[in-house]
Structure formats: C-alpha cells, structure tokens
Design a protein that fits this description.
alpha+beta; six-stranded mixed β-sheet
C-alpha cells in the first residue's frame, strides 16, 4: 500500500506581512508567525492586561531610556518566525525600529505573561527563543504567581541551560540591567 506524503507549506515573515498588507490578516487579528505557521494567540484577560500595564510602567520608569519597552509588538527571529511577545526590552535606536525589524540581537529581555498559555510559552516559545539565541526570557505565570526565568540559551539544542522559578517575595535583575533589581510581586497585579 502506497503511503501518501503530506507536505505543509511554511509561510515566511515576508509572506505573513504581505497577507496583512492585502487585508487577509486584519490589524487587530491576534496572530503571530511561529515556525512558518500562523498561530492564534490567547485572549488577554483583565489580570493579564493589568500585569502587562504594571510591568510597562515599572520598566519604562526605572530604565529611563536605556531600552525601548515594546508592548505586544513583533520581533523577527528568523525567516519563518515573528512572534509578538507581551513585552520586549530592545536596544535603543534613534528611529525606534522604524527602518528595520527588531531581531534577536536587539532583544535585551523578552517577557510573556501566561494565564492560559503557560504550556505553550514553555514548550513552544522557550525552544524558539533559545534557538534564536535570546539571552533571557521570562514567563510571568499568573496561575501560580511566580516568575520563570530562562537564561543561557543553547541555540543548537533549542533549550535554555538555566531555568529558575522565583516566588512573589524573591528579587531578580535582568542580565542586561544588573542594577535593576525587581521584586517578583511588583510584576504581578
């Protein structure tokens, strides 16, 4: 009996952008491109949004222009992946990335807020971010009121060598900003 081979078509980031320009994807569609597939993102609940707003105020206020704080915006990781994480700290640029896409070398810290998406953020996004060589990735886990911290990417293996779990009463400083000590509770709403 002959076996049928099914080949999936992977969209490139350029294809994905053309779909948006053509109106196939609307500006308010909650989708992102992950490994060539267009993936629907989880809805944002009140607590998720409140934590994101709180983090934005905290980080923007304390960084004082040392990084661009991007909220739910894209980062081009490869030809086939352009996720839209909840929060990015990017290297400062005078044009705020108007002339180029932010890429892996521009990311100082990437944060996802996980309410219903914890498994996806750990099992799909963490390996994606590790393969892209992102030095640091945080997941704010709203179900358990904790912060998962991923550091030291092994891009070949698609994993982080160091993964820590911090409770509400613990403190952390991003690798890019060792002087910016943050209490985990201050990230939670």
């Amino acid at each position: 009996m002959a076996r049928e081979i099914v080949v999936r078509h992977r969209f490139t980031v350029d294809d994905y952008h053309r779909m948006a320009e053509a109106g196939i994807l609307a500006e308010d569609d909650r989708v992102e491109l992950i490994e060539g597939e267009i993936v629907e993102m989880s809805p944002i609940g009140r607590r998720h949004q409140a934590c994101l707003d709180k983090m934005t105020a905290l980080l923007a206020g304390r960084l004082g222009g040392r990084a661009i704080v991007r909220i739910q915006g894209p980062v081009r990781l490869s030809q086939f992946s352009e996720p839209q994480p909840d929060l990015l700290l990017l290297r400062p640029r005078a044009d705020y990335y108007a002339s180029v896409d932010a890429g892996p070398d521009d990311v100082l810290l990437l944060i996802e807020v996980a309410d219903a998406s914890l498994a996806y953020d750990r099992e799909v996004k963490a390996p994606l971010y590790a393969r892209a060589g992102l030095a640091e990735y945080w997941i704010l886990d709203l179900q358990s009121d904790r912060l998962l911290v991923f550091r030291d990417p092994d891009s070949g293996a698609g994993r982080y060598r160091c993964v820590d779990c911090l409770a509400r009463d613990e403190r952390i400083a991003p690798l890019a900003f060792p002087d910016l000590e943050i209490l985990v509770a201050d990230l939670l709403a």
